[in-house]
Amino acid sequence: MRAGLIAVAVVATSWAGNGEAAGPTRLARSVELISMGGSSAPREATSVEDSAPPVSGTPDRAIPPDFRVHDLSRRWVEFQMADSFRALPENGGDSGDAPLSAAPIDGTVPAMTAIPVPLWMRGGAMVSAAAPRFVPGCAAVPYRPTGFLEPDAEDRRAGYYALMSNIACEHGIPVGLFDAMIIRESRYRANVFSPRNAFGLTQLMAGTAAGLGVNRYQVEENLWGGAKYLRQQLDHFGQYHLALAAYNAGPGRVRNGLVPQISQTRDYVDNVLFNWSRLSGFQRRAIVLPQVATPPRGPARPTGRMATVSAF
């Protein structure tokens, strides 16, 4: 047994020595290229040594366009898109489409088009009636009933109308506007206080009356102070709905040409403008249709009850 193991070891040692003396054996690799597209002559298989050629940074042939390696960073994609749009023909090609233009990639935002926003979208329901700018002036308007006031309020209005209209014209404001404002403020009650301590026909606050130099407890001066204060707001803001908002909520709350987001102020502006339009007769339009000859009627039906039976 021991002699057999020694013999196997000797044979293995001699085989290893013969292998080292013979040296390393180089194996050949073959690469076969198969063309799938055209009728070009087949290429012969070439043998390549085991040692691979060094990889260079630049390929030997141009890479096909479909296999280009792209930098997918945001700036590079923007550049590629803009460059591809610039490369389009100006006439739009055969498709008849309009030519495309490259979008700027410098991060700038194109200026917005000057689209006028209707006033009714920026204010209350009746703000669209205030689109014209204020132009000082006054036309004497004779008294006529409003048609929507209670009888007692209409009686008070009739008693103060001449004085009210004269003061309005003295300050160059429309009589109908001043009339509608007083209707909203006090309904022509000369001795009424508001929950915020405003007083009189035009509901002047104590500080406002002092700044205007009027006695708010005297009817004529109360009207004169209200007309002067309204004229100041008309001169400052230039539009009726903004001036009314400033009269109600204060000039400091009217910013950026908008009625402040105060429900009471918005309702005030809407109501005054609506009543002004009614006082001016804009809401009292009737359409008179021409008379059309009516066809002759048949014999008159007898009065009384009649039963009609229909069979289907």
UniProtKB/TrEMBL annotation:
Any Pfam family the entry gives: SLT
Coiled coil: none
InterPro entries per UniProt: Lysozyme-like_dom_sf, Transglycosylase_SLT_dom_1
UniProt xrefs under Gene3D superfamilies: 1.10.530.10
Domain Transglycosylase SLT: start-end pairs: 167-256
SUPFAM superfamilies listed in its UniProt record: Lysozyme-like
Region annotated Disordered, chain positions: 39-64, 293-312
Domain of life per record: Bacteria
Similarity-based family: Belongs to the virb1 family. Belongs to the transglycosylase Slt family.
Protein name: Lytic transglycosylase
